[in-house]
């Protein structure tokens, strides 16, 4: 009988374990599969708008000042609105080529869990996700996600809600 290969936990899953936060491991590859991945999630009973992407931004004041916004995959950001909501002159997308240096993660693997714990960046969530008891975020590896209670994640990362689009 063949042994079942055990999937090694990501560092971010270990962080959740250390904080006694329950979660489900999921495989969700938005980067390669796009809307097919969303359809697959919906077929599994997961509301597409409860699956979040993590966007790293910087303020206009200093290139070293970063923040994170998490919002449903299919939504867009309004950078002017976010700047206004935060009382900043401007916010900009962080340079994708420098993401690993900024956050420790490659594009597609950024997660509010590790970024909050390791970097201490402010974490904001699209206010439209308030209606979901459970949400999914990256587990710190491209194609891997964790699904957990929204309230547990907000508490862990000291998250705040933000209007990110009109």
From TrEMBL:
<keyword id="KW-0456">Lyase</keyword>
<dbReference type="GO" id="GO:0006412">
    <property type="term" value="P:translation"/>
</dbReference>
<dbReference type="InterPro" id="IPR004369">
    <property type="entry name" value="Prolyl-tRNA_editing_YbaK/EbsC"/>
</dbReference>
<keyword id="KW-0648">Protein biosynthesis</keyword>
<comment type="similarity">
    <text>Belongs to the prolyl-tRNA editing family. YbaK/EbsC subfamily.</text>
</comment>
<feature type="domain" description="YbaK/aminoacyl-tRNA synthetase-associated">
    <location>
        <begin position="34"/>
        <end position="156"/>
    </location>
</feature>
<dbReference type="GO" id="GO:0002161">
    <property type="term" value="F:aminoacyl-tRNA deacylase activity"/>
</dbReference>
<dbReference type="InterPro" id="IPR036754">
    <property type="entry name" value="YbaK/aa-tRNA-synt-asso_dom_sf"/>
</dbReference>
<dbReference type="GO" id="GO:0016829">
    <property type="term" value="F:lyase activity"/>
</dbReference>
<protein>
    <recommendedName>
        <fullName>Cys-tRNA(Pro)/Cys-tRNA(Cys) deacylase</fullName>
        <ecNumber>4.2.-.-</ecNumber>
    </recommendedName>
</protein>
<dbReference type="InterPro" id="IPR007214">
    <property type="entry name" value="YbaK/aa-tRNA-synth-assoc-dom"/>
</dbReference>
<dbReference type="Pfam" id="PF04073">
    <property type="entry name" value="tRNA_edit"/>
</dbReference>
């Amino acid at each position: 009988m063949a042994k079942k290969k055990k999937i090694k936990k990501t560092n971010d899953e270990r962080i959740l374990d250390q904080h006694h936060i329950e979660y489900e491991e999921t495989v969700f590859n938005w980067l390669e599969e796009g809307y097919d991945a969303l359809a697959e999630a919906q077929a599994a009973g997961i509301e597409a708008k409860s699956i979040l992407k993590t966007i790293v931004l910087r303020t206009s004041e200093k290139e070293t000042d970063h923040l994170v916004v998490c919002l449903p995959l299919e939504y867009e950001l309004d950078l002017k609105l976010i700047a206004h909501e935060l009382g900043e002159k401007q916010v900009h997308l962080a340079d994708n080529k420098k993401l690993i240096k900024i956050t420790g993660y490659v594009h597609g693997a950024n997660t509010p869990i590790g970024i909050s714990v390791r970097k201490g960046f402010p974490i904001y969530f699209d206010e439209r996700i308030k209606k979901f008891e459970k949400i999914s975020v990256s587990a710190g590896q491209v194609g891997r996600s964790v699904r957990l209670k929204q309230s547990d994640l907000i508490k862990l990362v000291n998250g705040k809600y933000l209007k990110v689009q009109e």
